[in-house]
Amino acid sequence: MLPGKVEHVLLTSEQIIERVDELGRQIRKDHPNAELTCICLLKGSSMFFCDLMRAIGSPMRMEFMRAASYGNSTTSSGSVKILTDLDADIEGHEVVIVEDIVDTGRTLDKVIDLLKGRNPKSLQVVSLLNKPSRRVVEVPIDYVGFEIDDHFVVGYGLDYDDYYRELPYVGILNLEG
Ligand code: IMP
Q1: Amino acid 71: pLDDT
Q2: Is 152 in the pocket of ligand 1 (CB under 6 A)?
């Protein structure tokens, strides 16, 4: 049974597409001659990643990484583990990490730390969503799609218990519903 119910659409598909397009154009403009290595943080950023890569539209490498932060279903704990690592060497490359949402900041903090140790030429972060009120660890985010209040949201790749990723919009989940 589907857990909970989407009680409110926070970002429509049209709003997301428009913003992702802007982010893509901005990233391309900021890296005019670079061959970027873009890293998709699975699974949440998968839908955002595909749309953003098309919006950037310049030659690039696409890489995939999976980090799990342990906690309960709606909040992460301090313990973050890398489950799937990159295939490519990023030393000397211009790297962009693509994240779905920055909440406490713990996952991104760990990923940035790990990747910095591999000596990329530059390391930037783009996140579709940012929940600044929930931050526990300060992390640098170079490009943000939307700042949101403290809601648990699903859709456009974001899940609750692996459900709701396929929704084309981002909605607030009511677990009581
Ligand atoms: P953080 O380590 O607390 O910043 O959490 C990062 C990860 O937790 C994100 O990449 C998401 O996978 C997940 N997460 C945090 N907030 C939400 C939410 O509102 N909806 C769905 N997933 C979330």
Answers
A1: 63
A2: yes
